[in-house]
Design a protein that fits this description.
six-stranded mixed beta sheet, 20 strands, glutathione binding, glutathione synthase activity, nucleotide-binding
Length: about 450
């Protein structure tokens, strides 16, 4: 159940869009994505700890992206003053799609590989809805005589709640608040109440949750002389952010609130450095030769490097004018169906496909700063299936669909010394969209919540 902010009807709440049944998904691909998650979390934790790497990565992007520049400036101030709170909680969702790599002519089956299309280390929510979707599908499978164990258990929300409680305990102040940073109009408010209730149960009534928007935080947050973050005079122990650093256009007041949080002793879930470590530009740099290896220099971790690189999608930066970059751009103009053009701060949507991609590449060919603000990504050829979409106020209908798999996990670590006290994978989602839709958004009606039926 989610809150409705549409003005076309009078419903205060509505059910979240969902598929009638789980969608088929290859078991081998699913298990590969699950298995690599902890290594992926370790990679992005280490990226977020390396401020100099982030500064170098964004040196061209900050020339055209005011918001990235403001966040980089905040990180420079954090580096100057010193990190006041060494502990941080990384909450990650890694998104994948299947990519067709061949067919068996004898039995007519297709072969697919799993490829990462997004790394998300910023605002991660909605896990309770994912669990309920999985449970709904398991019950429906039983009713129609199919094996419900092929729809895997999904307890990512419980894992997230336990991780937030772990962070609050690590702050070691039973009077400290846990602040949930969210938009005023946030669809999954019912889920936040569930998180609050469970944290109350785990803490035996000690933990208090407060809800704050970034703009309200500008007025209500204060930095004490000892760098404690105060909310209306009360110490904040943990800030769980559901406001994307990369996808939300913050005004000056909101950015000042972010700065107060980052300069404080509150444990950030996540820190700003980690939140901006999963942009398209960072993903592209990690995919380049030596990118992942920089963060796994120990030969004993070579297996992690191999596992991560196997799931990378082709990514290319555009800021250079070398022969290879110009070759990729020329190929994308000639064969646009093989590529997607993405802005660095993209957080769902705003991508360029087909003719729009060609036009955009041509118009920015001599604009160095605009080229630096985009990357090219390999366009995948996913598995196509059929399913019914169930959406509020719309009659169900059978559609030709494709699915994206998301894998969740959390990591608790010390940023100055880069040690990790906790790292675990738990939970997943399947987001299924109409096969003809370039962008798959639940809120815009082209996608629904789903779960995998493994085969």
């Amino acid at each position: 159940m989610i809150l409705s902010y549409k003005l076309t009807h009078n419903h205060i709440a509505q059910f979240a869009p969902v598929s009638l049944l789980p969608s088929p998904f290859p078991r081998e691909a699913f298990e590969k994505a699950i298995a690599v998650q902890e290594a992926m979390q370790l990679l992005y934790f280490r990226v977020g700890c390396d401020f100099d790497f982030l500064f170098e990565a964004y040196k061209d992007v900050v020339k055209t992206d005011k918001q990235i520049k403001q966040m980089v400036d905040i990180l420079r101030e954090v580096q100057k003053q010193g990190i006041k709170q060494p502990q941080t909680l990384l909450i990650m969702r890694s998104d994948y799609m299947l990519n067709k790599v061949g067919s068996n002519t004898e039995n007519g089956t297709d072969h697919y590989e799993i490829k990462q299309i997004e790394a998300n280390t910023g605002a991660i929510g909605g896990l309770g809805n994912d669990r309920r979707t999985s449970e709904l599908h398991q019950r429906l499978l039983k009713r129609i005589g199919m094996d419900p164990t092929n729809a895997p258990q999904n307890e990512g929300d419980a894992h997230l709640i336990n991780s937030l409680f772990m962070a609050w305990k690590a702050f070691d102040n039973s009077d400290a608040l846990l602040v949930i940073l969210s938009h005023v109009k946030f669809s999954y408010k019912y889920e936040l109440r569930k998180i609050e209730d469970e944290l109350d149960r785990l803490s035996e009534g000690q933990l208090r949750v407060a809800y704050v928007s970034l703009n309200d935080g500008y007025y209500d947050f204060k930095l004490a002389a000892d760098s404690s973050l105060l909310l209306n005079g009360k110490v904040v122990g943990v800030v769980y952010s559901l406001i994307s650093a990369l996808g939300y256009k913050a005004n000056e007041e909101a950015m000042e609130a972010r700065k107060m949080i980052e300069l404080s002793t509150a444990i950030k879930a996540p820190s700003l450095a980690i939140a901006i470590s999963s942009s398209k530009k960072i993903q592209q740099l990690l995919a380049s030769p030596g990118g992942v290896e920089r963060f796994f220099p120990d030969p004993a971790e070579a297996d992690k490097v191999k596992a991560i690189r196997e799931i990378f999608t082709g990514l290319w930066g555009l800021e250079g004018h070398d022969e290879e970059t110009e070759r990729i751009i020329a190929d994308a103009i000639e064969n646009p169906s093989n590529y997607v053009l993405k802005p660095n701060g993209e957080c769902g949507g705003n991508n360029y496909y087909d003719d729009q991609l060609v036009e955009k590449l041509r118009t920015m060919s001599n604009n160095q700063e605009e080229r630096a603000a985009h990357i090219l990504m390999q366009k995948l050829h996913p598995m196509i299936t059929k399913n019914y979409f169930l959406r509020p106020t719309i009659l169900p209908r059978l559609g030709v669909v494709v699915s994206e798999l998301g894998v969740y996990g959390t990591l608790m670590g010390n940023m100055p010394d880069r040690t990790v006290s906790y790292n675990a994978q738990s939970g997943h989602l399947l987001r299924t969209k109409l096969a003809g839709a370039n962008e798959g958004g639940i809120s815009v009606g082209t996608a629904v919540g789903d779960s995998p039926y493994l085969f």
